[in-house]
Design a protein that fits this description.
By secondary structure, the protein is an alpha/beta fold. It folds into 2 domains: 194 residues, Alpha-Beta Complex (inorganic pyrophosphatase (n-terminal core)), CATH 3.90.1640; 119 residues, Roll (Diaminopimelate Epimerase, Chain A, domain 1). It is built from 12 helices and 11 strands. The strands form 2 sheets. The chain has a 6-stranded mixed sheet, with helices on both faces. A 5-stranded parallel sheet has the order 2-1-3-4-5. The longest helix is centred in the N-terminal third of the chain and has 16 residues. The radius of gyration is 19 Å and the shape is globular. The protein starts with 7 loop residues before the first helix and ends in a 5-residue tail after the last helix. Bound molecules: manganese (II) ion (MN). Manganese (II) ion binds next to loops.
């Protein structure tokens, strides 16, 4: 993490939490393990401190995706329709107002709000900003907050944080991971978490249908070696018909395989939502800042992992992406 732990925002956040009674934690829409894990970790911590806590995601009738049901504290999750009026809202891993979904207004109306996030593209909503693009995961920052609140790091809290940490660092493989990340990981291990089972459930456990969908997506992949000024682009598309009944999260894993392509610096997966609109996910290896590319295309994200929402015209989207990548900033 960056050296921002001494900034006044942290003291403001601790003060805001200490006077709050009803706290709502919000993870971004289509939550991943960092967003939901951080929200649940802070939620469990504040529950132990005697607060009344709810955790939610701004999608109508939200329920926790099956792949994240193993996270401790999921009993704190309620659909956005069922939240009690909070006096403090804490958004986790959420870079923009839009990513709050239907809970954007609740955060806006709450007497106080904290945004805890590590996206460089954070757009500045809410009252207190704990934002550190140097943090490898929001989970790192959530632990900092829990420490500042002097709350004991239990095994349940550690399991939630570990899920976020290994997800956002690709099991400590990505560029953002630091010695601090490993030291945090060691602290989480020392609470006695079943790290092996957490890693298996996160990365190595999928329904058969998800594997065959991935097979089709990989078969349809296209390699353009001359794209990105000769650094190479590999992409594939997953239309709604290919996805079947699989949740959106199942498609997220396709890019983890596609990005292994030796001949391509950038990997892209276009996923079609039920309304026909395509969403693009981008990954780069070491040279190209796909966060900037994604921001230019109306989305956001990190240097090596980003995404955006496009249109219903996949041919135009691919052309637009290759054009953007031709002038993409280097890291
Ligand atoms: Mn994250």
């Amino acid at each position: 993490m960056g050296d921002f732990s001494k900034t006044p925002e942290w003291a403001d956040a601790v003060d805001a939490i200490s006077v709050a009674q009803r706290v709502l934690l919000v993870a971004h829409v289509t939550p991943d393990a960092d967003a939901l894990g951080s929200a649940l970790a802070i939620g469990l911590s504040l529950t132990s401190a005697g607060k009344s806590v709810q955790v939610s995601v701004g999608e109508p009738d939200f329920v926790v995706p099956q792949s994240l049901e193993f996270l401790p504290g999921v009993e704190l999750v309620v659909a956005p329709e069922n939240i009690a009026q909070p006096d403090l809202v804490i958004s986790c891993d959420t870079s923009s107002h839009e990513r709050l979904g239907t809970l954007a207004q609740v955060l806006h109306d709450a007497p106080n709000s904290i945004a805890i996030d590590h996206h460089a593209s954070f757009t500045g909503f809410g009252k207190i900003h704990l934002v550190d693009p140097q943090a490898a995961a929001t989970a790192e920052m959530a632990l900092k907050l829990i420490d500042l609140l002097d709350i004991e790091l239990t095994q349940a809290i550690a399991a939630c944080l570990y899920a976020g940490l290994v997800t956002d660092t690709g099991s400590f493989k990505f560029q953002g991971a630091t010695g601090d990340t490993l030291r945090i990981g060691a602290r989480l291990f020392d609470t006695g978490i079943d790290h092996s089972s957490i890693a298996r459930l996160l990365f190595d456990d999928e329904p058969f249908d998800a594997l065959t969908m991935m097979g089709t997506a990989l078969q349809n992949a296209v390699l353009i070696p001359e794209a990105v000024n000769g650094l190479g682009l590999v992409y594939t598309t997953i239309a709604t018909g290919q996805r079947g009944d699989l949740p959106e999260l199942a498609m997220e894993r396709v890019i983890d395989v596609l990005r292994r392509t030796s001949e391509a610096e950038v990997a892209a997966v276009f996923k079609q939502a039920d309304d026909g609109i395509w969403k693009g996910s981008l990954r780069s290896k070491a040279v190209i800042d796909v966060g900037a590319v994604s921001t230019a295309l109306g989305g956001g994200g990190h240097r090596f992992a980003a995404g955006y929402t496009g249109s219903d015209d996949i041919v135009a989207l691919i052309a637009e992406l290759t054009t953007q990548l031709a002038s993409a900033p280097k890291i």
